[in-house]
């Protein structure tokens, strides 16, 4: 039993990595009062940009991840200009960005269909990898999975322990008051939105250069929408977001192992499990309106101009 469980749990961390990147980026953006529904599009743009950079330069993930982050940030910049500077509807701009990302990635990606990349080998952390059970789960992962966990620690620390985190919360809760005491609300929201785009792009690049190191059209496969749902599931708390990403990552990886073990469940149902889990969790969370209202940024999704 244990020898079947360890690969599932180890695979869960890798499957959750793109959700952690994209989810943390969206959480920071929403903390500032900006809801960007274009996470799926930014992840796709980051995926094709990262794959193209890795394939053309020969640098692998080392070149692909920064390229994906830059591409995601540029896509988020377009969203920010429309929704922040021009006060356009944030939901509509985000949906348009997703549609644009799907089309752009498909157009550019047609030239890379036959390419594949070497990927990344797992890194063993000396001393820790030898811990029974836990060592093989947590300390035998690729470098980007460790980077996602480091990113979580940094985001948690900034939001909970620094003045920047308090300013971000003030801008998301009461932009008029923050502006009145001298904080540049639009500039702060720009920064949070671009950070969210860079993180989403990095999550997409991880998918195309490390997790599945080849290009497949629409390979993000709804993970951007799950990342947005994770932010609500976590009630804008980074720790709960990572736990939720592991939950959904586990459901995703479980379908592959279930198929390999020959469990008599239709393949279509197994493939739908992560999305069914998303719906179920959102329904359960939405029933606790008090918890949502306590943590929901008061100005989320509302256009604001000085």
From TrEMBL:
The chain crosses the membrane at residues 6-25, 37-55, 61-84, 91-113, 143-159, 180-202, 214-234, 241-258, 264-285. Keywords: Cell membrane, Membrane, Transmembrane, Transmembrane helix. One of its GO terms (cellular component) is plasma membrane. The keyword Protein biosynthesis does not apply. It is found in: Cell membrane. It is a multi-pass membrane protein. GO terms for molecular function: transmembrane transporter activity. This is ABC transporter permease.
